[in-house]
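ok new one. same drill as before - structure tokens go in, u give me an amino acid for every spot. 549 of them this time. try not to just spam alanines like last time pls lmao
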């Protein structure tokens, strides 16, 4: 690790390590430099905190990034260092947007942009504009993001910051890549070609900026974007060559996040070509396991890809194991975001309380009540999000687990029915993912309409649903599920899309006294597999005898 010899140059040393992609060394150096600056009461500590927080946010180490950004902003405000205060607020904007607090994130970025305008700081303007551009979700936001990034690039060039210029260009390529992927999914080949044409000069700029900075990290990111272009174009050979190139750079320099992305890109290629066994091979290596271990978001994506591969290969046990691992990681991520979101809102409430003590007690007390109401509402919203599928509006896997656990703990013998849309991939391939989403929404409503008042339906996967019923004989459960299956088959799907037909296969199991939830679900899953294997569009009930111990 580089020693902290000179606090006056510590910020430049930290920025150099970050630019070169030596992230682990940068983290250790930054922590040591902050400690040394605090002990010496050196004014560099706020800027060091801000720069290290920015690195941690990019690495998705959200909790320490949030803590350091808050400390950096407070320290800079106390020292009257308005530039560093603005830079810290840019980092806060990144963190808040990751936590789903988009309005608060935009407020932080706009405040930083206004401060940059007042100070005449092109660097602060570049970073604030970049923060405002993050995470577009629809066509209008994509256009706005591209415009903001163009302004961020101009400001970065005016500030002579090659690093900020690179990230502005890199994220413009990423925004266009996401647009191209949406256009490809919609089957609009001419739009894809036009978008890719716009990406190519940006790739040239990114390569030039990476070379000028001498940053292998920036080179690896640019090559990863090039791989995305080839994947969208369907050029497997060129995509694989680009993937291998940025994987080699990442392996040489210890860029574990990019190395994990390379394996996931290889898996995307294999899945697109129907080589599901190759997906297992690519994502099952020890190197990939080591690469994704520090990064929960990539572990989640990896488990999801492994689940889909096992499912396509007819391995229900493997599919179930990977799906459960995927949902466990997603649950952890959701819980982390909920906890951190609440801590942010509580911190803002604490600030309001502190301000009330300065003499504006009545006004600030009213703000406190509003903040508390907002906090309560936010907690309720986060709880609803944690248990609700955003597409269909019905309960999600977490809600299903909770309902089934409660039923089993009460000593009941509930019935579980697993539903899977037959050939759903063909629906998406033939009609597009937009129609696929409409099918999923309609199916959720259809299932609810066929159930008894006490029964509940949940969406637990892409095209997978779970019905939890109270105590019911096996023949009664079969009748309910047959009625449901027939209603799905008879639904006028052609009103959704011409030529569209949808059927479901159903696996049913009734809990045995004292049975574990996992065993009950496994029996229902085996029955679903039998329904699929025996021709689909049918209900199969597990009627096996309990094993005698």
């Amino acid at each position: 690790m580089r020693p902290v010899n000179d606090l006056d140059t510590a910020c430049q040393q930290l920025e150099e390590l970050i630019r070169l992609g030596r992230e682990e060394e940068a983290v250790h150096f930054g922590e040591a430099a902050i400690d040394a600056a605090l002990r010496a009461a050196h004014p560099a500590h706020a800027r060091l905190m801000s720069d290290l927080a920015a690195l941690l946010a990019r690495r998705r180490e959200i909790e320490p990034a949030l803590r350091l950004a808050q400390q950096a902003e407070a320290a800079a405000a106390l020292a009257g260092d308005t530039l560093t205060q603005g830079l810290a607020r840019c980092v806060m904007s990144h963190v808040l947007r990751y936590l789903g607090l988009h309005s608060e994130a935009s407020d932080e970025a706009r405040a930083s942009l206004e401060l940059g305008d007042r100070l005449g700081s092109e660097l602060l303007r570049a970073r604030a504009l970049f923060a405002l551009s993050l995470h577009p979700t629809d066509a209008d936001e994509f256009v706005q993001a591209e415009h903001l990034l163009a302004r961020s690039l101009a400001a970065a060039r005016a500030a002579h910051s090659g690093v900020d210029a690179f990230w502005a260009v890199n994220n413009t390529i990423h925004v266009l890549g996401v647009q191209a992927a949406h256009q490809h999914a919609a089957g609009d080949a001419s739009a894809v070609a036009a978008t890719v044409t716009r990406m190519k000069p940006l790739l040239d700029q990114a390569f030039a900026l990476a070379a000028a900075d001498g940053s292998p990290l920036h080179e690896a990111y640019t090559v990863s974007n090039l791989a995305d272009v080839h994947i969208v174009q369907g050029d497997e050979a060129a995509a694989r060559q680009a993937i291998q190139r940025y994987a080699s750079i990442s392996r040489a320099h210890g860029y574990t996040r990019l190395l994990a992305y390379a394996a996931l890109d290889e898996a995307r290629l294999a899945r697109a070509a129907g080589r599901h066994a190759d997906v297992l091979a690519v994502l099952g290596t020890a190197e990939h396991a080591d690469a994704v271990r520090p990064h929960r978001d990539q572990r989640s994506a990896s488990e999801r890809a492994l689940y889909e591969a096992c499912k396509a290969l007819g391995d229900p046990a493997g599919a179930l194991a990977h799906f459960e691992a995927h949902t466990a990681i997603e649950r952890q991520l959701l819980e982390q975001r909920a906890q951190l979101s609440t801590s942010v809102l509580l911190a803002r409430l604490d600030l309001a309380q502190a301000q009330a003590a300065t003499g504006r007690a009545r006004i600030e007390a009213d703000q406190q009540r509003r903040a508390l109401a907002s906090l309560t509402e936010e907690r309720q919203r986060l709880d609803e999000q944690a248990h609700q599928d955003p597409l269909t509006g019905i309960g999600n896997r977490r809600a299903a687990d909770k309902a089934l656990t409660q039923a089993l703990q009460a000593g009941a013998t509930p019935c579980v029915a697993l539903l899977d849309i037959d050939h759903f991939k063909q629906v998406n391939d033939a009609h597009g993912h937009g129609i696929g989403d409409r099918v999923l929404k309609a199916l959720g409503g259809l299932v609810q309409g066929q159930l008894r008042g006490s029964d509940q339906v949940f969406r637990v996967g892409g095209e997978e649903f779970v019905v939890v019923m109270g105590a019911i004989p096996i023949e009664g459960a079969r009748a309910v599920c047959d009625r449901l299956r027939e209603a799905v088959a008879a639904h006028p799907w052609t009103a959704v899309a011409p030529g569209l037909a949808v059927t479901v296969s159903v696996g049913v199991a009734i809990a045995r006294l004292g049975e574990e939830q996992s065993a009950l679900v496994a029996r229902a899953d085996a029955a679903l597999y039998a329904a699929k294997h025996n021709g689909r569009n049918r209900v199969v009930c597990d009627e096996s005898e309990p094993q005698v111990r």
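The first strand starts at residue 415 and ends at 421. and btw The mean pLDDT is 86.
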